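Blinded run. Sample ID left blank on purpose so nobody reads anything into the name before looking at the predicted structure. Input follows.
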Amino acid sequence: MTMRKTPGLKPAAVLGTPLLASAFASPSASASARAASASVSARPSASSASAASAAPSAVAARACETGGPHTDFKGTNINMRSTPGGNYAGTANQGDCAYWYQTDSGPRVQCPGGTGTTAWHLVQNKRTGVVGHVSACCL
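Blinded prediction complete.
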């Protein structure tokens, strides 16, 4: 098959618009096709406009992923400990997000609701990266 150069062919318009210009079209039809192509590419499509409006704003607070080993802290200024009830390792706050590793038994803690627990969770504060134990009251 021999390939020929065809300088009279016009490039196709933007995908999704009809192909109006061709080697057989009149000059006025080619001009109309160029104008239609330019007006289509100049305005945003409905899908790109809805995608832009669906994007979260920079000031909106991100919610923590929950389920499985992912959770969030309940409260502010929660002391993270090196062992259950042990030395201070860091501080956690609601919104920091936590990754749970395991549950251990430790000293009894009185929860804000009046219940008590001896369960301590080993977690990583996703914001600070600190790994430590927190009472089950705090998760």
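Unblinding after everyone has recorded impressions. Strands lie at 70-71, 78-81, 88-92, 98-110, 116-125, 131-135.
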